[in-house]
Amino acid sequence: MYQYDQYDQTLVNERAAQFREQTRRFLAGELTEDQYRPLRLMNGLYIQRHAPMLRVAIPYGLLSSQQLRMLGHIARTYDKDYGHFTTRQNIQYNWPRLEEVPDILDDLAKVEMHAIQTSGNCIRNTTSDHLAGVASDEMEDPRPYCEIIRQWSTLHPEFAFLPRKFKIAVSGAQRDRAATQVHDIGLQLVKNEHGETGFEVLVGGGLGRTPIIGVVIRPFLEKQHLLSYLEAILRVYNRYGRRDNKYKAR
């Protein structure tokens, strides 16, 4: 699995320190709720009816044993001894105390984890087949492409305030366990008539209030064009996606 370099580690450390100061200012009355809301959403923190909820990113569902132990430590120390793994390969803590959330982010940073882009109208966690790398029907391991997308999309300045949250899934198997058809962009690894591996690209899928199956807009995309093609799709969505009605923003 991908290992942080010094730049990755510095980024998550500084983001955690920044949010600690923002939370201190909010609790001290120096920031209003309206001022604090976009800051907490940038760090995966929701304020729900009974308690805050923190969503932690698990890129394409891959965890080390050290990271899993830290998630258990956070559940025992800051929550009610459990967390909720989501269908999109994140984990949510539903009972943390607001003043302790900065401590959680510090603990996550110690094991190369964070809550960046797990909420808000941005590119969310890239998901994949939970059997990626070991599936018998797999054409190619999709996780390296998930990591490329993760690095490209993290804190991308052009796509930080999209019309609605944006979800991408990648699958390399014959059976679509990643549910690529119900994502904003679904990428399915396929071979063309020359035996070359590339991507079938689907767009416009989704669940929620108005479920819809995505449509294929490109049967075969060469690997080297992956990021430029994703960027083109997102630019169209960012320009023409509806911002007046979030239920029609797909």
Architecture overview:
- The strands form 2 sheets. A 5-stranded mixed beta sheet has the order 5-6-7-8-9, covered by helices on one side. Strands 1-2-4-3 form a 4-stranded antiparallel beta sheet, with no helix packed on it.
- The chain is of the alpha+beta class and 250 residues long.
- It folds into 2 domains: 6-110, Sulfite Reductase Hemoprotein, domain 2 (Alpha-Beta Complex); 127-248, Sulfite Reductase Hemoprotein, domain 1 (2-Layer Sandwich), CATH 3.30.413.10.
- The chain is built from 6 helices and 9 strands.
- Helix content is 32%, strand content 17%.
- A hairpin with a 4-residue loop joins strand 3 (84-85) and strand 4.
- The model has no long low-confidence stretch (mean pLDDT 95).
- It is globular, with a radius of gyration of 19 Å.
